[in-house]
Each structure stands twice: as structure tokens, then as C-alpha cells.
């Protein structure tokens, strides 16, 4: 159970926060001391237990602190950057920052990071990373540019993984987000493109992250009020390759999307996050704690004076600006036991292993009159159970995932699948097909089970094919899941023509309202512009086709199109006959492979009103010739085709005449083989 204790004010009116809040709050070398940097000229050291400042330092008039001050845990000194390039180092005995150590760097610094166990690390605005000692040895060293033009750093954090510093920073460019993982000691940089799912149309307002031995869990709070999670491997399989990672929904509707002062998100522990913002049911800002494991709100505290949308968490203290005051809210959290109390943890244990009872402090029980015999017996039982469990052979991750698919919830399966896909095992290509088969098999047994997000992730691995999992597209056709069908058409190279036509029928018949609700890849129609059905388009200019005009005097009178009535002028304007969403789906059909002989019989089943919008014109006309001649909708198409073919025949006729002349020239050249070293010939064509 999580609890927020009574808040208290750490400072009031001492700092110049400004409209954007503070520049940063960082922990000092003592657990209850914090360095607070405002957006002006001042750094203040506070002691939480005494609720008072211990020291204050400022740069001189005209200078501006641009990076929050940090503590060098190896030396106990403080480090700050002002005016983007000027590095200052001082300690508690110093009074005036103008007289402390100074080093001018060659590039602008974005942020200084410092954690226990390593030296401070500086991240430059262009994405380069340097340790403090390396910069002090050569301050004017050249700093390389890692980021592309227009790419801006939005969030960054330093972790310690196996006693090695790992810096992660997230950038944005034209609405696209990229995650960089920099191994500081080995100077290894990995880049990931963050593929956003259902939150694609929203704006990311806050980031936070946690790390374990294998994965970095990046969480983002979007303008739709939801929290999303992305798993990134600490050690990538191919650091040189720009890899892609997909985010998934973690918490739904935790804050209002229209918060006046912004929102903030921070990780508290493995199961809890703190969210700062306005709830959906209230207008005032609140600090709330959510259990991400059980999807429940644990506690909340109203902040009537408003905040700056900034939140820091160190130890057991949450710090924020409440009104004009720096406020501390102590936080306590016990280990969650909701799932155990409700019996929801049965699926997470192997059936052959007995669930362990809660831990009992038997030493403390002796004071209550329990003898040593009663205390020793449970120890032996626990030790024996531990040995039995540890002696069992390790189960491969692929088999563990298959077992999870057969009995766990969709959310848990999705999380385990993302972990499996993040680290490609040697049997990766072989196991992906088994995973799809397992998911589809459970779908048949349990109609309510629909692991759509899992199937999307597996399709995007580019490992699957139709022959490997034919039931996948059959299920998508049955459920009219146009997104899955589009992905399969884009990824699978061996789709039968009958299935392609089944997809075509669905794409042509599904309603526009359903298409707007579906998550369709619109990349193939990114330049669709305003050519949606019903929009006005400028009249086309007459253009010569291959040197001949299809509207010339040689056209038969029967091919002249009947002038449109005034009220039909808009209908005669050339427009795209489908919406952008439907056009994207049809493009997936048109780009898939097919055989004319096998495709032709299936095209006969397409309704007549749908056969004039497609690229397979020859096959469609052959398959539906009688119908096309009869329906009024095809008249304009047939007339245009006739004019175009007639102009092409004229071109080919002229080319044939030239071909005869060139043949004669070729004969002449063959007869005159002996021309000497140099000759000039004049050939006349009549």
C-alpha cells in the first residue's frame, strides 16, 4: 500500500523559479541534502531534515546558469555550467563562484549527470558524451555532432548497470522520437526509433525510465492522459544498426490531456509511478501514485496552489514547486499484495512447484513463548523447498513464453513477448511461427481471447510468411481486421491470390466510419493532399501524349464524350474515388505479388461498382468484359482507354516507318566495311 505523508515547505521565495519552474533538483553527497538550481544565477544547498538552506552560490550579474548543478560523489565537489560553455567547480568552503575553478569548453552543454559510483558525465547539445575528467584534461577538445539537423534532446538520465554508467537520452525531430543508449565506459552508442502505436496522434509530455539487468523501461505520459511503456535492451544485438522499438499502453487516463501547467511522470519503484497533473474528474492539480502492476490508483494529494509541472524523486521524498514554494512530500510504500489476496497470482507459478507461504520471523517468535524446536522445523522445510526448486533444469525463454501464451492474460503475454523480441535468441526465427500458432490456437478455444497487439508485434519482425501461419490471415478476414490484413500484405511474400481477393473485397466494402477508427498505415498515401472524394480539383490542362493529342480530329465521333450538364460539372471533375484510408489499403493490395492465371478467376466475384478503380485493368476487363460494357459507370473509363490506345497506335505506326529506314541504313553500313582510317559520308533519307 502506498501513502503520501504530510507535505512541508523547504523554501519559500528564496529561489527565482520563473514561469518554467526550476532548472533542476539534484541529490548531494548526503541523502537528506539537495542542490536546487533556479533559472537565473543561483544554486542553493538544502537540508531536508532541518528544512533550511546550508549554502547559496551565485554567478555574477550578466551571467546565466544553463545546466543544473550536480555533486561529484567521488570528490564531494559541486559542478555547474553557465552561459552554455563555462564549467565551474567548487566546494562548501567557497563563497564566490567567480573565484572558483573555471574551464571554458568548445561546445554547448545540455546537461550534467552524476550518480554514485562514477564521475560526472556531460551530455552536449549535439549528442556527444564526455566524462568530467577527460574534459578537465583538455577543455578545448573537439566535440563531435551525433544528432542530425533539427534533432532536439527532450529528456535524459544516467543509470548504473553492473557498475557501469549508461546514459540514455531521447530526442525529437518533426514529431518523431529517437532513443539513444550510450555506454559511457566503452563509448558504444545505440540508436532506436520509437514507433508509437495508438498514441501516435498525441504529444508526449513527460518521460521517465527505470533499468534492470537486461532492459531499460522507458515510460512516457502523452497528451491523451495515458502512460505508455517501451522496453529497450541494455546490450543491443547490433549497436551500429538503427533499430525500432514499439510502445504499449501501460496506464489509461491517469491525467487530463489539457493540464494548464503541464504534467510530470516519475518512477518510484518496480510497481509504482507518481503522476503530477489534473485528474479527469477535477480541475485542480494532484499528485497521485499508481500501481502499474495492478492498474490501480493507490493514493493522491490535491495541490490547490498549482505546480510548474516538474517532479523529482530521491530516496523517500518527492519534491515539486507548489505555488511559489519548494515543497517536499515524503512517500512510503509497502510491497503490493493485492493480487495474492485476490488469488490472481496462480498463473505465474509452475503447477509443479508449491507456492511459498509468507516469510515468518521465527527468531522474534521465541519471545512469545515458542520454543527452538518450533523455530527450527520451518527453516528446514524452507531450505528443502529451495533446493528442490533450484535443482530443476532451466526452461528456455521460448518455452516459457509458449507456456505463458496458453494460460496468462493478454497484458502479461504482451509484456513477456516484448521482452522476448527485444533480445533475439538463436532459435528466434523458428520460435516466431510457433508463437503465432499458439496464439491462434488459443483464439479458437477462447473466442474472447484476442491478442491483437501481440500479433502485430510478431508480424513486424519480418520473419513470418503466409505458409508459416495461414490461419492468421483467415482469422483477420473473419474479424474484418483491416490493420492486420494490411500488415500481412506488406510483410508476407507468398499470399495466395484467393486470399488477396478476399482482402480486396473487405477493403472495398467496409464502411468509411470503420476505416476512420482503424489504425491504418498511411505511408503509401502521404502525398494524398486534397484529392479526397468530393473535393474540388482544378481542371486538367491539355497535354500531348507521346507527341499526339487524344482529342485530335482523327478520333471517331462516337468517342466524343457527351457534354456534362451544368449541375454535373462537379461530378465530371477528376477526383480520387476513395478516401485516404481506403487508398492506403488498396495500395497494399496492388503492391502484393500475384500470378495472372490464378488471380483472374477470383476477380470475377468482385461487384461491378468496384471494378473501375484499380491498376489490374487488363485482368479486370478480361474477367468482367460483358459487365463493363453494360454499366454506365464504366462509360467514361472505356472512352478514355479508347482514345489513349488510338493515340498509341499512331505513335507505333510512325515508329514502324522509321524502323524501315534504319534497317536500310544498317544494310549500307554492312556493305561498306572498308572505309580506311577516316571517312565522311552523307546519307539522304527520302
TrEMBL record:
Its main location: nucleus. SUPFAM superfamilies: WD40 repeat-like. GO terms for molecular function: RNA binding. It comes from the Eukaryota. The keyword Heme does not apply. PANTHER family: NUCLEOLAR PROTEIN 11. Pfam families: Nol11_C, NOL11_N. InterPro entries: NOL11, Nol11_C, NOL11_N, WD40_repeat_dom_sf. Residues 399-613 form the Nucleolar protein 11 C-terminal domain. Keywords: Activator, Nucleus, rRNA processing, Transcription, Transcription regulation. It is found in: Nucleus, Nucleolus. Residues 1-332 form the Nucleolar protein 11 N-terminal domain. The gene is NOL11. One of its GO terms (cellular component) is nucleolus. This is Nucleolar protein 11 isoform X3. GO terms for biological process: maturation of SSU-rRNA.
